[in-house]
Amino acid sequence: MRPVGAFYPWKSLPVQWQDVETDDWIVITKGTIVSLITNQVTTTAGTGISGGLPDIEASGSIPVFDDETVSGATYTALNIDTSYWGYHETAAGLLIPANGGSAVRYEYAADDVTAAVVHPDTDLTIVTAAEFADTPKNTPVGVVFMDVMQDIRGKSLNYNLYASQYGVLSDGLIVLPYIDYGDTTPQTTSTFAATKVLGANSAFDAVTADVGYNAVYKKHSFFYFDSAADPSVGARAGSLLQSDAYGKFVGQGTGESQSVTVARDQQTVGRLLYTDARYPKDQLQAVDTYPGSGLQGTETNGIPAFIYNFAVDALTGMSLATTSRHVLEMVKSGAIGAAYIQLDVS
């Protein structure tokens, strides 16, 4: 089910990666669990939301373009409701990654400076590396089913993105890669994430020790769990799922325990149907693919590309072996595979 509604991305989201064909920046990767900033989000100093999406009678403004007649990065802000570069009347909310109900800090980096991300406070300047925005806790509304590009409306005189408004998926079957960071064979994945990456609003939550997570969370959407923490229910079929601090899928429950007694609540986004690591299938390992293409076939030992590319990036981040043979071994051991998720945000 795709709910009726078209939404813009929040203007001050940090960029995740750059499209090599168009040079546009992506701020939310497809498959990410998202929430919405609406007219019911109270503007509070220091939250980073700064203005939100107010009612028409109390309409605010958004930074639109850098005035080149003025020295420095001085952005001109235009009215949300009356300006051509404001928000179309069909849009009732702004997309932001879900955070599992915990306040989260977004830390800006060099890419955000390059992409000219505007700071969410009132001075309307481009962010600098190591600056941050603290965002309040939120509740999931669904999953984005396509990559969401940075809102650059008004930035250029003769260029606009082919898509500036996006929808969400709230009910349906999705398939994502998974990683079990409690697995110890054939390579130990314990450095993927020390625990669920949950918000603290005091430091960048994808901590340095979580080197595998840091290597993939901007480019991939995925489900991760620790089978060693509670072997009896680590990723049991039917387990309830929720968002971590940055819109990735984790089991719902205390710590890494996905107890069967956990009940649905506002943070529930669906349930795990099953995990599948029985690859390769259908003799796809015999299909010739060009070396370096990353396409399913001889290049990936028959492993689907979405799993293989995720595995290579995660293993690289953890300084583990990344040849196609090693990736195949990780999949056959059950450490990495496909997660079939019944999305049900209700």
Shape label: globular
Oligomer: single chain
Q: Determine the mean pLDDT.
A: 84
Strand adjacency order, main sheet: 13-12-17-16-14-15
Class by SSE composition: mainly beta
Radius of gyration, CA atoms, in whole angstroms: 21 Å
- Biggest pleated-sheet summary: 6 strands, mixed
Which labels suit this protein?
4 helices; 4-stranded mixed sheet; 346 residues; mainly beta
Structural write-up:
The chain contains 4 helices and 17 strands. It is mainly beta and 346 residues long. The longest helix is centred in the C-terminal third of the chain and has 13 residues, at 305-317. The radius of gyration is 21 Å and the shape is globular. 41% of the residues are buried.
What would you say about this model in short?
This protein is mostly beta strands and 346 residues long. The chain folds into two domains: 6-149, no CATH class; 171-344, no CATH class.
Q: What layout of secondary structure does this protein have?
A:
Layout: E1 6-9, E2 17-18, E3 25-28, E4 33-37, E5 61-66, E6 75-79, E7 91-97, E8 104-107, H1 110-114, E9 132-135, E10 142-143, E11 148-149, E12 171-180, H2 211-216, E13 223-225, E14 240-243, E15 249-251, E16 268-276, H3 305-317, H4 324-332, E17 336-344
Parallel strand pairs: 1-7, 12-13
Antiparallel strand pairs: 2-3, 3-11, 4-7, 4-10, 5-6, 8-9, 12-17, 14-15, 14-16, 16-17
